[in-house]
Amino acid sequence: MTETCDVVVIGAGIAGASTAYHLRAEHGLSVRLIERGAVASGGTGQSAAIIRQHYSNALAAGLTRDSITLFDAMEQRHGRPTGVRRTGYRLLLGPDMLEGARRNVAMIQGLGIDTEILDVAALDLPWLEPDGIAGVVWEPDGGYADPVRATEAFVAAFQEAGGLLFTRTPVRTLLREGDRVFGVMTEAGSVHAGAVVNAAGPWAAPLAHQAGIALPVSAVREQDTVWEARSGRPLPDTPVSNGLEAIYLRPLGGRRFVVGRGFPKAYEPADPYNYRTTADEPFVFDVLARLERRLPSFQGATLVDSYAALYDVTPDWYPFAGPRRDVAGYLDCNGGSGHGFKLGPALGRDLAAWIATGAPRTPDFARLSHDRIADGRVFTQAYGGNRG
After folding, report:
1. What is the chain's percent helix, strand, coil content, to nearest 5?
2. Which CATH class is domain 3-49+148-216+316-375?
């Protein structure tokens, strides 16, 4: 039997969950949220979930600022805990990073975001080896979240508003006729809709390609580790992006931290349907060496876990979000490129408004459409800081 609704959203990661929630709760549309596994079972669930607004582009910084507001609103309006902890955020700067960071901070401050660069000598950071550090970006509204709880909060609020969730329901293909997508086919049957949002993350490109839609989103394998400090020495109380050793870390509690590699680093293409989910041994030892060099408290740390997940990456590292000229009824919400968790709530809000009103919320947000590829308007500034 064929079902009908206003919008189908494919993928219940943070971006898809936020899109579905805002379409239903804010705009009153009938929505089906369809997920091939469980909620947040893709890249979202294994995100380091560091929340920081330090980006080299005002659009990304503003979206993350708005996402923080949306996490807060989810708890205040719906009583849904997101696991967000506003501990603050630190970025360690080498001498070659200082001038660019000053420009970034000035731009971010112009958006009303509270941030500054501090002199490491004036800070009480007993866990840090300060040699070579030219400054520390401090962002008091930063922190981290539990990515699964946060996504589940948006999904629960979506269902509470009357939206329908279907988990363990892979979308087999997009239904297309001519230049229009009009629904999806699942194992349970077809769903016809006025709009279909592809928020399938690393699986977005294969799904689009089945319907003849070009989508230059690559899946790359991203590794992370979990370490427990054993020395008894002081530890960071915030997430830290270490620009000198190119690593990031964030607290898990109980002297445990997620630690991964930051930019610059090599990226390994992956088949999203068949990739190695454990971390490589050389990667684990490399991360520990970088960690011990800057944070002596981790000398002799115990490896608790290591794993690999997937990033969905666009050619310019900025997400695709919005409709496109070449096919009606189809919208992208993918290509988070390692930043999807921070951007996801605001991406979903603004995409939902675009669908409901027929116009982008701001001219800047319209730049995220896939049409920028054909128009030669790709973003040329890389994201600032680490890709953590």
Report:
1. 30, 30, 40
2. alpha beta
